[in-house]
Amino acid sequence: MPIVGVIGGGQLARMMQPAAINLGLELRVFAESENSSAALSATSIGDYNDYEQLRAFAVDCDAITFDHEHVPTHLLSELEQDGIAVRPGPKALIHAQNKLVMRRKLAELGLPQPAWAAAKSAEDVEAFIAQHGPKIIVKTPIGGYDGKGVRVVSDAAQVADWLGKIDSFGGELLLEQKVDFSRELAQLSARRPSGEFKTFPLAQTIQENSVCSEVIAPAPQADFAAAKEIARAIAESLEVVGVMAVELFETPEGKLLVNELAMRPHNSGHFSMDGCKTSQFEQHLRAVLDLPLGDTSLNFDFAVMINLLGVDEKNDFLAHYPSAMASFPQVKFHLYQKAPRGGRKMGHLNLTGSNLDELLVAGRNCRAILYNQ
Amino acid sequence: MPIVGVIGGGQLARMMQPAAINLGLELRVFAESENSSAALSATSIGDYNDYEQLRAFAVDCDAITFDHEHVPTHLLSELEQDGIAVRPGPKALIHAQNKLVMRRKLAELGLPQPAWAAAKSAEDVEAFIAQHGPKIIVKTPIGGYDGKGVRVVSDAAQVADWLGKIDSFGGELLLEQKVDFSRELAQLSARRPSGEFKTFPLAQTIQENSVCSEVIAPAPQADFAAAKEIARAIAESLEVVGVMAVELFETPEGKLLVNELAMRPHNSGHFSMDGCKTSQFEQHLRAVLDLPLGDTSLNFDFAVMINLLGVDEKNDFLAHYPSAMASFPQVKFHLYQKAPRGGRKMGHLNLTGSNLDELLVAGRNCRAILYNQ
């Protein structure tokens, strides 16, 4: 029986388990702690920065994949040299780990993206502000997510701290034009080693405080063909294996610009769990094992995903199941068994049907019941 | 976090796990051996005939439920006396464990069923044959499933062995009229302790060699209202908790007769995993925890389930995934990780859509690829 090993014990590893159970595959998780979200499948606990621990976990697996993008590339290359199938491989993954590497690659591929530059000094930042300001975006090339490692600035002094320890970011910061976008979209896709590539329905993502709050699939009226071709160009040129999310800005003119890349199942694709013939988690497992990809078509006119973020350290969504389930028998509940903390991704709701407005209203009302302290 | 304990480590316990993961519940399984189909969730290994082992497993669970119907009723009553929530409770479960108890209860409720009698002797059998023969059905009241413990006979001599050890069956055999049915149906439902009751779409079941081979939901043109009311009458009068399957004969005149009962998720309800808003496994977990029941509506015009039975001790369905998945990207694969054996339930396929004939043809062709040695 094929064995997939996942580095990282977060909710993405957790949500691979139902797909593995259905397909009859074995999933093993290398988690950081005993009480991870994927604890059920955590067959090893350890430090993903320690090569020997990584290797010991990986050696019995048919393929290694990821719950997050924090494993140092050189360790993944070592695993590959030791004959382990790392999927996506480090040469692809570096583009999701390092935003400057991604920007340079997208430029080389001629794909649409915001104006950008690498900055080594305050002077570089000021020059970019002069050209694209008054406000620009500054990002640390590595380690950022959900708004962390990202600042909107109008003065180089606002990133003086980052400039002061620029070596810890690889010697450069990423500067980006602050795009005047009309909305954000996400194109989920999957590619397997033998080359097969499939996209999921293009989704619209709605952020609150830089964290994904709601997702609508398909995105109402968008340039589906352009999104698909951007994803295909990236997946094929980088030889990505597994699920990839391309986060996109849509300009007021309807043009798409690449914002970020994730090479793993992604929050913007959770709608697929209850909305599509094949979920992103099943598709990821198929892809990393080089099995034929599943049908990604949406079973409904619309699927809506509503994120459940932690309110504080005491909130307990489960305690509100009786009232939420009684009022919303059609809602699919997904809770991650994580210790609650303000703003933490604790779960999500999926709704499917033909009336988008009704789905959104029901989802938000259901969330309100779960949030009720 | 609520904990559900399942007695028995078969595929039904296994398939409760994805539902538990999604809902954020904890599932614990009391399995007979280390390598059970539900091994991932098997937190205890032991003998379900040993009260102390059962109790040690059950004491930390919010509710105890079942993968099979073999746990002796008196042990379940003891668990109840010890304050453990046994769901369904032994007073309901006995009707699924003992077919004579069921027949007597259905008669008391005035529900439609084949002509039947209890037999203690060859004379009783001959008398029933004289009235309902030339062929009748003889069943052992306890321990039968998938055609085991069931014989078609035209002479009492054909059950001489059973009559000779009749005490091991409780002192009586069950005799049933051999119904001239046009097809078999299954009404799946769920009830929770506070009384809420919901049915799933009525399904048609197709047996081969007394084992379920295919299921079609909804059953084309049937007396849906009658099936629903039979299920409701049984569930409410017996105070069933959890999912219950009522297996029905449909006579050429369209009348429904109760064949058998199962008080747990059932093979005839696997279509719900990919066909309905709420799967039978999620519904069962909700019911045994007394949570509001989910929406059971079918998301498609039709859902089809195709069973995968073991061919011999060497066959390996997984080895055929590459060709089966390539030809049938729309098929949902479910494999149970059981050691293969001829005739054993090894997995199933689910297909959903609007053209029933196309679904059946695709499902059978996909199965043929998986069966290919």
UniProtKB/TrEMBL annotation, chains A, B:
Alphabetized InterPro entries for the sequence: ATP-grasp (IPR011761), ATP-grasp_carboxylate-amine (IPR003135), ATP_grasp_subdomain_1 (IPR013815), PreATP-grasp_dom_sf (IPR016185), PurK (IPR005875), PurK_C (IPR040686), PurT/PurK_preATP-grasp (IPR054350), Rudment_hybrid_motif (IPR011054)
EC number, UniProt record: 6.3.4.18
ATP-grasp domain span: 103-289
Signal peptide positions (record): none
Catalytic activity: 5-amino-1-(5-phospho-beta-D-ribosyl)imidazole + hydrogencarbonate + ATP = 5-carboxyamino-1-(5-phospho-D-ribosyl)imidazole + ADP + phosphate + 2 H(+)
An example Gene Ontology biological process: 'de novo' IMP biosynthetic process
Known pathway: Purine metabolism; IMP biosynthesis via de novo pathway; 5-amino-1-(5-phospho-D-ribosyl)imidazole-4-carboxylate from 5-amino-1-(5-phospho-D-ribosyl)imidazole (N5-CAIR route): step 1/2
Keyword ATP-binding belongs to the record: yes
Gene3D superfamilies to which the protein is assigned, alphabetical: 3.40.50.20, ATP-grasp fold, A domain, ATP-grasp fold, B domain
A cellular component term, taken from the record's GO annotations: cytosol
Keywords assigned by UniProt, alphabetized: ATP-binding, Ligase, Nucleotide-binding, Purine biosynthesis
Amino-acid positions noted as binding ATP in the UniProt annotation, renumbered to this chain: K99, K139, E176, Q177, K178, V179, E184, N259, E260
Gene Ontology MF term list: 5-(carboxyamino)imidazole ribonucleotide synthase activity; ATP binding; metal ion binding; phosphoribosylaminoimidazole carboxylase activity
Family: Belongs to the PurK/PurT family.
Function comment: Catalyzes the ATP-dependent conversion of 5-aminoimidazole ribonucleotide (AIR) and HCO(3)(-) to N5-carboxyaminoimidazole ribonucleotide (N5-CAIR).
Quaternary data: Homodimer.
UniProt-listed HAMAP family: PurK
Protein name: N5-carboxyaminoimidazole ribonucleotide synthase
Organism from which the protein derives: Aquiluna borgnonia
